[in-house]
Here is the input.
Amino acid sequence: MAKKPSAAAKLFVLDTNVLMHDPTSLFRFQEHDLLIPIITLEELDQHKKGMSEVSRNARQASRFLDELVKGWEDMDEGIPLGPASHEAATGRLFLQTEAVNGPLPVSLAASKVDNQILGVVLHLRQKHPKRQVVLVSKDINMRIKARALGLAAEDYYNDKVLEDTDLLYTGVTELPPEFWDTHGKGMESWQSNSHTYYRLKGPLTDGFLVNGFVYLESEPPFYAKVTSVKGKTVELETIKDYSHHKNNVWGITSRNREQNFALNVLMDPEIDFVTLLGQAGTGKTLLTLAAGLAQVLEKKIYSEIIMTRVTVPVGEDIGFLPGTEEEKMTPWMGALEDNLDVLNKTDDEAGDWGRAATQDLIRSRIKIKSLNFMRGRTFINKFLIIDEAQNLTPKQMKTLITRAGPGTKVVCLGNIAQIDTPYLTEGSSGLTYVVDHFKGWPHSGHVTLARGERSRLADYAAEVL
Here is the structure.
């Protein structure tokens, strides 16, 4: 006889969109029990056809449920989730086995799926008065309706990396003015390859991460990168100054401190994965393209640039587009065209013919790919740029980054304040997810760009509108 659940363990009722967002959500509720209404299974069935991420997730959720249900005769006792989740979840899974004629208010149409799920939650609350019954849904209106009926309702939080995106790692730390006084004792310093190195320890070094940048706006300013962290001892390396014209990257120089840091990680061949966050106009795409072209055409570290982005329209969709994969992607690549125009004008001495020849060469080395055809591919020796990465889910982000073969550098660009994908938030975006998970890895770098460099009009608009 299966043991009865304790009153302390909550009973969570899952809305369909939770399973379609994250099929592994079945195993994410620890010691609590889950109930899946029959109507949720109906909805999963309706969404299983197709090649979209939602359809794939619906099929995976159905497969998980099939594995769990196999061999269980008595559904009323619940199916233990422990064996299938390697004891990560110790609760039980219940499937709705009886018809519910719940006491729904007359104003709610019983034919609507959402309202039927609310009816199940109401019924369960009456049936188990001593247990806490909670609806879990990604749908805000569903949660509002549930609370209006006096029901407990929550968002699905497990995929959220951070509750407050202000706490997201920025990759940049400002040092206090007294830094050298408090950390100078026993410090070692040496020079190598035109960089100065410092080995030191002190109270602040606990929070340093490898490839994080530190700065002190003194006279002259001190800009450095953390190269190693061993206990409380850290090594700092002064960075290359990309604001100076002699260090220009494809004719581009950094216009502010963060752009300088960004170019240092973009141009470092030891760093395989770069994330750049920042508002519109901070120079993310321009710096990345300049660094990519310099390393493909001048240094020949990579064979070509591959650029991709999520095709989520801001306005109405423009329908089916004719042409090849590259031609279909062209309308989404306006940012690429704009930045190439800027980069093409940096060569003053070439003249019109020279610039036209350069433009043809650049275009032959930049490939535009659609995200839809990325599965199963491997990119070797490529400079892969993922633009508008804030619109990717963590799972899509994993699919893309794992395409990287030997010698490939992946750069993710985005602004988490501009998410266009339904059900994704700043906290659960794939971009937030990778920034948080890759911080401190010796072969990754991250910079949050702070200042817009477009025009005074764009800066003022971003501030007041």
